[in-house]
Amino acid sequence: MFLAICLPGPVLLAAALTLDQPRSAVDFWGLLAGGVLTTIVGVGFGVFGWRLVTRSRRDARRLSAAGVAATAEVLTVANHLGGEDPGLELHLRISGPGFATFEADTIRADDPALVPGALLPAVVDPADRLFAIT
Known about the structure:
By secondary structure, the chain is α+β, with helices and mostly antiparallel strands. The protein is built from three helices and five strands; from the N terminus they run αααβββββ. The protein has a five-stranded antiparallel beta sheet.
């Protein structure tokens, strides 16, 4: 998927440099500038997305290997309107065996069961407090 984000820029560059059809200087420089700009933006987004997914997978592997079962108590709930998927911003108190109780924030999909006082199952890596609500 992220490779597909990176491809339009190089395709425009190749079109600008290899098409044998007679074209004006404006067309050539437009294709060249569009190709360079699209390559820079596309590769930037592609690399960013790839790193985000890689980090997410690494964290999931770490939690499955070193995570301990925990309980997350919902302390406060607020609407979260950022991004494409609005949801709820939860302030949690996470406790369990092998680590000190701590508080953290997370964003979850809108769910009527997410109210202050609700208890949610979680997994925590005690080494650095990496957690996931399960």
